[in-house]
Amino acid sequence: MNKPIHFLLSLRRCALLAALGAALAAPAVQAQAPAPIRIGMIEGLSGPFANTGEAVYRNLVWATERVNARGGVRLPGGNRPLLIERFDSKGQTEEALSALRLAVDQDITIVTQGNSSAAASALIEAINKHNAREPARQMLFLNYAAVDPALTNEKCSFWHFRFDAHADMRMTALMSVLREDRQLKNIYLIGQDYSFGQAVLREGRSQLAAQRPDVKIVGEELHPMARVKDFLPYATKIKASGAQAVLTGNWGNDLSLLVKAAREVGFDGTFYTFYGNALGAPAAMGEAGIGKVIAVADWFPNVPTRESEAFYREFRQRFPDPADDYVHMRMQLMIESLAQAIERAGASGPVNAATIAARLEKAEVTLAGQSARMRAADHQFQQALAVAVMDRQGAPGVKFDVEGSGYGFRVIRNMTPQQAEQPHRCNMVRP
Fold first, then answer.
1. Which residue among 17, 124, 220, 280 has the highest number of C-beta atoms inside a 10 angstrom radius?
2. How far apart are alpha carbons 72 and 104 in whole angstroms?
3. How far is 142 from 112, CA to CA, in rounded Å?
4. What is the DSSP string of 24-80?
5. H/E/C letters for each residue in 284-325?
6. In this predicted model, what pLDDT tens digit does every residue of 55-85 receive, in sequence order?
7. How many CA atoms are closer than 13 Å to the CA of 21, on its beta-carbon side?
8. DSSP assigned state of 396
């Protein structure tokens, strides 16, 4: 055999051996790929509040992408990515419990939910029972939006962590602005008829009596949640009552339809809201909402800092559709807190709920200039709160609008975590 032919055959033999080696090595590489840490999101992804569920999903995906971009959760046995698994509760408590059972069947240790305090309460009770019954398969519940105060007071649980300010904390922030409105004499209270809506009206009455006893409550009403399609009868009663302002904890379509109906009947009073800064409410109110829609939140896009502006611009780059404009700092801080807790637990094997919970109740995180900590006594996140008023984009303090509406929110009151903090009534039982 001449040398050129021998050389070519040798090259082919090397190539075949290399290809065979790669084929044999590929499964080994795949086998060594770290398994993701799965987080089961139990939320209404269909039904009347599907838009809020999808908005939450975008927030959580973006938060996990940030962790994964830096290599994932850092553990001794190798970094592990975070992964959000979707479970549709259809906005129903029973469906949320069914979703929890599915998560258990899939060996998911961490679940998260928020858009219903009634569902959150049921999940806390179910997880408490599950963890007592199956100590080898214990679960954690991270709550990003269910704000009935009882959940970290009378119903507090070692396995439940709330990352939103509860209703009484939010009400206190709103009241710090309302009490300075010396023109206000008459107010109307309206809310959704379930635990959270009832808590908002109850606390509203209490704080009005304590801080503005001169303000008369001229109407108080609870309506079915997610079932009212026409709010004109409610708006007509509000206008006829002589109210100069409305205080409401409504969210989702129950808020946007309410403010739209109020505009249609010519109500020109102020709306003091928990969630008036998103999900269609500003567009529904339009020009009538300028200076009249006030909202409270843990963060607003127009918080006047460079870190905040950069954070919001990054979100808009990731989700450029104006309809997707729903970003919450607390959901980002929640995922950062979880990643921190898992890293401090240091386990590279199966996720252990009790070990992570012991670290999570001591979490302290900072993102985009916003710092917060978990209070171990009741598992209530302690963070800043802000109150803002609706105005046209381009007005002083309103660089960014909401959902492409042309209207944004200018921050008019800031409360530090220490100012927003409130006492608790939790008697934590630890395993």
1. 124
2. 24
3. 5
4. HHHHHHHHHSPPPEEEEEEE--SSTTHHHHHHHHHHHHHHHHHHHHTTSB--TT--B
5. HHHHHHCCCEEEEECCCCCCCCHHHHHHHHHHHHHCCCHHHC
6. 999 999 999 999 999 999 999 989 999 999 9
7. 6
8. T
- On average, the pLDDT of the chain sits at 92
Q: Residue for token digits 């969210």?
A: 251
Per the structure block, which two tokens stand in for 252? 């989702």
d(CA 413, CA 268) in angstroms, rounded, equals 23
Neighbours of 312 (CB within 10 A): 21
Q: Residues 337, 363: contact at Cβ < 8 Å?
A: yes
Q: Say if CB 392 and CB 406 are below 8 A apart.
A: yes
What CA dihedral angle connects 384, 91, 321 and 228, to 10 degrees?
A: -100
Tokens of 198: 């009832």
- In the chain, the amino acid numbered 312 is Y
CA distance 78 to 85: 22
Contact indicator for 303, 388 with CB cutoff of 8 Å: no
pLDDT tens digits, 181-207: 999 999 999 999 999 999 999 999 999
**Residue 278 one-letter amino acid:** A
pLDDT tens sequence across 209-218 = 999 999 999 9
CB 424 within 8 A of CB 162: no
Residue 11 vs residues 16, 17, 376: alpha-carbon distances, Å: 9, 10, 66
Q: Which of 55, 48, 112, 49 is nearest to 85 (CA)?
A: 112
CB 280, CB 231: distance < 8 Å? no
Domains of the chain, CATH where assigned:
37-165+309-383 (3.40.50.2300), 168-297+385-419 (3.40.50.2300)
Say yes or no to pLDDT of 133 above 90.
Answer: yes
Cβ-contact 116, 128 below 8 angstroms: no
